[in-house]
Amino acid sequence: MSGHRTPEPLILQALSAAAFAPFGAVIEPAAAAHEYPINDGLTYRYDDIARAHSFPAGQSNGEMNSADTGLGFSIFRARPVALPFALQRMERHPLGTQAFINTGNVAFAIVVAPPGAFDAAAMRAFLAAPGQSINYHVGTWHHHLLALGRGDFIVVDRIGDGNCDEMALPEPIMLVASSADGHR
């Protein structure tokens, strides 16, 4: 019998701007830098909630003053996953941010690790409530979209090659809703 130990499960925690700040921004009205009525008072604008960045291939995140390039809007139509869920891979986008704007009003799980060399011990898991959205920082490791119900997400990110690094986890890690779900 080997001394191999199964990784501890990741437990979802409520998504908040403060807890998610090292990985990106929460996109919700409470995060607005400014808010004010527009369009003859028929619309309320929540302004400057998150910034999108996209860099030419070969340019580093440290060169934030360079011109952004190639941002696109896409629709991701999510099929629901069930918890517990076996996490098997992670990805990152080294040339741009990636925003997921929740138009389906569904809860979704977010699994992240800090930019740089991947560190499984630094992984965190968040539960986004219906109506919450996110914007990943450049280079933040994350799992692909894990919607807990059917829904559409508008995704704003860099279009083109060279902006998605993927890696398989050495072994699956279970994502669970609470510590009670993770007991073996």
Automatic annotation (TrEMBL):
Matches recorded under Pfam families: Ureidogly_lyase (PF04115)
Biological-process GO terms, alphabetical: allantoin catabolic process; purine nucleobase metabolic process
Molecular function per GO: ureidoglycolate hydrolase activity; ureidoglycolate lyase activity
Keywords: Lyase, Purine metabolism
Catalytic reaction(s) noted: (S)-ureidoglycolate = urea + glyoxylate
Gene3D superfamilies: Ureidoglycolate hydrolase (2.60.120.480)
Stored InterPro entries: RmlC_Cupin_sf, UAH_cupin, Ureidogly_lyase, Ureidoglycolate_lyase_dom_sf
Subunit structure: Homodimer.
Official protein name in the record: Ureidoglycolate lyase
